[in-house]
Amino acid sequence: MTSTFPQLLLSHAAQRPQDPAMREKEYGIWQTLSWADLATLVQHLACGLHQAGLQRGDHMVVVGANRPRLYATMLAVQSLGAVPIPLYQDAAATECVFPINNAEVRFAFAEDQEQVDKLLEIRSQCPQLAHLYYDDPRGLRNYDEPGLASLDELQAAGKAHAALHPDLFRDEVARAAEGDVAAMFFTSGTTGNPKGVVHTHFSLLNRARAGAEFDRLTHREDVLAYLPPAWIGQNIFSYAQWLACGYVVNCPESASTVTIDLKEIGPTYYFAPPRVFEGLLTSVMIRMEDAGALKRRLFHACMALAQRVGPTLMDGKPVGLLDRLGYALGDWLVYGPLRNNLGMSRVRVAYTAGEAIGPDLFTFYRSIGINLKQLYGSTETAVFVCLQPDHEARADTVGVPCAGVEIKVADNGEILVKSPGLLKEYFRNPAATAEVLTPDGWYHTSDAGFIDSHGHLKIIDRVKDVGRLKGGPSDGAMFAPKYVENKLKFFPHIKEVVAYGDGREKVCVMINIDFDAVGNWAERRNLPYAGYTDLAQKSEVYELIKECVEKVNADLAEDALLAGSQVSRFLVLHKELDADDGELTRTNKVRRGFIAEKYQPLVDGLYGGKTEQYIETVVKFEDGRTGSVSATLKIMDAKTFTPVKAAA
User: Of 132, 307, 416, 604, which has the maximum CB count within 10 A?
Assistant: First the structure.
């Protein structure tokens, strides 16, 4: 009876009716919703949607941030055998057209006026979109659009319908089976239209339970839901595992209050991409630079000890008595207050995924007593493919296959996965489905990697992106752009990198600086600047970035396989790469091919030996207007090193 999401909801409501299911921060105060109240809300929304004509197998778009009523709406849709499709709330209106038309969506949930306006803007292109329900009524009082109604109205209509048909909700929930489609997630569409990844209740819950068993999760966990619900990682952690385990999901007041809310909640189970962990550490280091001399010396002395013995303690290995005592003192003076300041004093398990995490960053968190680990997965695998065991967390691997997963490496280095969590199909795209799923059940990940001697998986890059240098002293050497990009992004002053080199005689990169980190660095050196473009082209900033590039080159020189991927030339871009400008996906992955076309003069300048290049770029503002940013960018050479093995 508990093989689907709505069935799990009713099970929790029956077993622990008054226990908290969700919390939401409103006007600075945390409001709690119990399992019983959530079940009642879902029942009323489901009955309202049933009365409005939502049928089994229909699709309903859900656009908004993490909110109890958004989660309740998804559960209500699933209760009727229909399929929720979460879309990114920061997506432009035009990005919603294809998913809505592809899935023939008639119903939509929009969190607030911004999302309602977005859907109304494209309604002429999506004529079947008949019903729009909004949660936050602010700014919508005078709207007069057919089919537009508040969630309160839907809930009230559903309550009345439930009173007349008291068995309707439970009968519909009981009809569902674990093999039914539970949700659809659209990929970012880096090379064309996005694809709808279809998952069943079984595939999502099987992986949710596998992850929960691996880390011994219980209903006592606290989770902060702050990443987009349209991203399957957030959906697994705060929806699938939430219902599988019955723990509490906490929704922050807004994106700007996440850091404060994190400290108030003190989650026990935490997930964030590397960029979030980098941002938290950068803010700590900026504050330490501004602290007094005594406090700085104490911090650096304690951190030196932590870096040396902290990871060893975290891995459960023996440490000398003096070091153990010193670490205990450091924990009282520095590490404990630091964990508390980061909002991680109660974290039992923390995960990062999506991109590689820098060894220094990874070691920092583990050295201060935070059990940070890595995992590997994707939308198509319902996330959980590989996880790192508690005492085997390393920065250069993504863990071991978790329960039910088989992995093999193809002749071209591609990772193939067999798992109960694999997608059912790409919606209405049998050709794409056949490309990734073999007849005997293996999924092509498109990632290149290998299993190391300890049984851990190592990812090098995307198979299609792994190339070869051509001509010059490194002719024929392997080039892994993502590997190079990630090594550079490990530095706190570098936010984004785009690397080129396949089929060329050398590697060149375009770099985005981290405006906050570099801005703080500049201010401490009394270096004036007038915004991002000005700061990015300062000669002092170029020297700072050059130092980072050459450190990466020295590191690459020690790797026989990738020594040829050292960066010969670089430039610092005049603007930040932006998803609204098409340069990044909504999950913040660089669109390398698109960027190469858009910035062709810069690529030509890098490879043509120029020392500077003028560029003018069209940019899109948040309100939909367009403008342009222009600058003459410096292009700088970087020192490369003789491969260590070649020199031996």
Answer: 132
